[in-house]
Amino acid sequence: MENSFPEEFRNLTRKNRKLTILDLSSNELVTLPCDLFSFNTELNTLNLSSNLLSDLPKGIFSNNPKLAILDLSNNLLSVTDWSSINSVNLHVLNTSNNRITTLDSYLRNLIDSRSVMTFLENNNYLDCSCENNDLYVWLSNQKTPNVNITEVYCSQTGISISSHINTFDSFSYDYKLKRYIGLLGLISILVILAICAVFYHRHYQNILRVRRIRRQLKDFTEENVALQQNFLLYLAYSFTDSETVLQNIFPQLEARLQQELNIDDNLVCISDRDFDVGTIISDEIIRAVSTCTAVMFVISKEFASSRWCEFESEIAIYQQKPIIIVVLEQIKIKSFPTSLRKVCYKWTRIEWPGNEYVNKLDNFWKKLTKAVIRCTDVNYRFFA
């Protein structure tokens, strides 16, 4: 048969519209008319093997919905547009011994959706470059042996595609493993950076507190402090605990200190009695702590959550005052703000027993009075 189809043969295919099997193999065909099979809607088996076909016209099989077996082996096909195959019955596609370099996405989807048996073996050299990477991902993920790649080779290396797929699978596993390890490492680094950021933020906040205290202390020189009334002890407590402190702790403590030291002056400074009216609270706290020889904290949950109590502890730490701690109720030190936590870790403390425990209460006052006198060097300012 000649390389170009005569009009008589085209008319012959048109007249045999019920044709189901057509064998055009070994005819040295170079090209095919795009409408050659357009009238053969019942065509089931088509053999185009052992010709010289280098390409298939677009849409050549578009009118063959019943095509089940298509043999294109032993041709010169390379890159081919397979979108013209729309048969729902196709289950065998033989493209062996051609020059095929890749399988386009349409053909891959066709094979996956209809389980088409595809033969690629002998003289088909697939492109193994990175641009064709999706083909190897698809081949390595084939769950059923729909694609026969026996004796199919890589066009770049000449190595069997089966070996390439095994290498690709190994590489994919190594790549995924390295990617997961890298991702885990990145997450670890981000977590470490987040922790460092938290610690840096806390450290920076502490620096800001110290700077704020220093600025506020600039107004209180030694000359200004000397003009103020001196106290033996500054008593810091939460406003919520005022009733307990003012009724049970403060009056007894000051009376016992006056009796022990034989002094009638006010010895304990408290905000409710000794702060000047109409002044800034932070300035009064600084003045009070500066003019006292020691500081006493009456600690409770409310004290730990109070910003003013935290400020009082910061001032006491900055001025390096001796600190006495009275615990009203049990509370975890870890929940304290930084400055108060430092105080509790450094100084010993005594628990308030309550007025109902007479025996414990007497021992409490003896220890507390002794501690105040010991911490407040009696030769310091007040008794000078």
- Cα-based radius of gyration, to the nearest Å: 47 Å
What count of helical segments does DSSP give?
Answer: 12
Biggest sheet, strands in spatial order? 1-2-3-4-5-7
Give the rounded overall mean pLDDT. Answer: 79
Largest sheet: 6 strands, parallel
From the coordinates shown, what is the CATH architecture of the largest domain? Alpha-Beta Horseshoe
Describe this structure in words.
- This protein has 384 residues and is of the alpha/beta class.
- The protein folds into 3 domains: 7-159, Leucine-rich repeat, LRR (right-handed beta-alpha superhelix) (Alpha-Beta Horseshoe), CATH 3.80.10; 170-218; 227-375, Rossmann fold (3-Layer(aba) Sandwich), CATH 3.40.50.
- It is 44% helix and 12% strand.
- It has 12 helices and 13 strands.
- The protein has helices at residues 7-15, 105-114, 133-140, 161-217, 222-227, 242-261, 271-274, 281-290, 301-305, 307-318, 338-346, 358-375; strands spanning 21-23, 45-47, 69-71, 92-94, 117-119, 125-126, 147-148, 153-154, 231-236, 268-269, 292-299, 323-327, 349-351.
- A 6-stranded parallel beta sheet has the order 1-2-3-4-5-7, with no helix packed on it. It has a 5-stranded parallel beta sheet with strand order 10-9-11-12-13, sandwiched between helices. Strands 6-8 form a two-stranded parallel ribbon.
- Strand 4 (92-94), helix 2 and strand 5 (117-119) form a beta-alpha-beta unit.
- Helix 3 (133-140) crosses helix 4 (161-217).
- The relative contact order is 0.06.
- Mean pLDDT is 79; it is low at 220-227 and 378-384.
